[in-house]
Amino acid sequence: MATTAMSHQSIVSFISLRFKINSSLIHTSKKRNFCKIEAMTSQTETSVSYNNNNNTLLSPSKNIPETSLKKTNEAALILIRHGESLWNEKNLFTGCVDVPLTEKGVEEAIEAGKRISNIPVDVIFTSSLIRAQMTAMLAMIQHRRKKVPIILHDENEQAKTWSQVFSEETKNQSIPVIPAWQLNERMYGELQGLNKQETAERYGKQQVHEWRRSYDIPPPKGESLEMCAERAVAYFEDNIEPMLAAGKNVMIAAHGNSLRSIIMYLDKLTSQEVISLELSTGIPLLYIFKDGKFMKRGSPVGPTEPGVYAYTKGLAQYRQKLEAESEVICS
């Protein structure tokens, strides 16, 4: 295909091999003590720690407030539901089963990247599932800054040590990608792997509709949307919102239900409102975090559409900077 230099099979094989998920990460924990993130920002690599008792930004080397981080009253938040997966295509319940994107899903991820190519991104959060990680990686390849997304591995000390980058120049041309199981799709329990149509015929359309669309009714041995929201929103509050408050522009590539949960929090939706919320695969949504509040800006429609960038002065200036850099390179 014209949109990609390698076949769908080779993309899936490469990314699946490169970013295997450590199954030991899939466990439940409700501790909210510390979040330490090794973040390679646009200027330099910065180790950031957040004390969750008061969200005070702490220096990695001293237990005092950090003053060297970029401070601003505005930051961009991009939400992207992963592109079509192989089980989406087959109409199977996927949940937390780790399946890759289809060729259409790859194209959707690339198109999503084009739509956000003029929006600043300092750090990326994904689920621990390959379809979300593929979407994030393929999308960022389209960004005009041409920074390389690098998945951070902290499964154990060896993973941390072996994945270190020792070139400051390389770090400055990289974007950290932080996988988190808390952003995974909701676990569909005994429905995972079943055909949706056949399941409706077996259990009845009304029962399956309740499992899929109710807020607090889980499928057999699975999670309800309420349970999914508990872990996803808690992670967002503890790890992502402090990043935005520090002025970091964040992209989240995740799943229909984990993103619906986060949008419920951002837009202050009721449980009845969120169950009717539909998210298309591969379509980015933009929010602006300003003065402690989230403002929904819809979906960027393409790199040549100026409207979405005119919503804020910061985005407009960022776009102008990209245009200026492009002119210098071309000249």
UniProtKB/TrEMBL annotation:
Q: Which GO terms describe its molecular function?
A: phosphoglycerate mutase activity
Q: Which residues form the active site?
A: H82, E185
Query: What biological-process GO terms show up in the record?
Result: glycolytic process
Entries under Pfam families matching the protein: His_Phos_1
* Record-listed substrate binding positions: 81-88, 94-95, 131, 185-188, 196, 212-213, 256-257
Under Enzyme Commission nomenclature, its number is 5.4.2.11
Q: What family name appears in the similarity comment?
A: Belongs to the phosphoglycerate mutase family. BPG-dependent PGAM subfamily.
- Protein name as it appears in the record: phosphoglycerate mutase (2,3-diphosphoglycerate-dependent)
Please tell me the species this chain comes from.
Answer: Cardamine amara subsp. amara
Lineage of the native species? Eukaryota, Viridiplantae, Streptophyta, Embryophyta, Tracheophyta
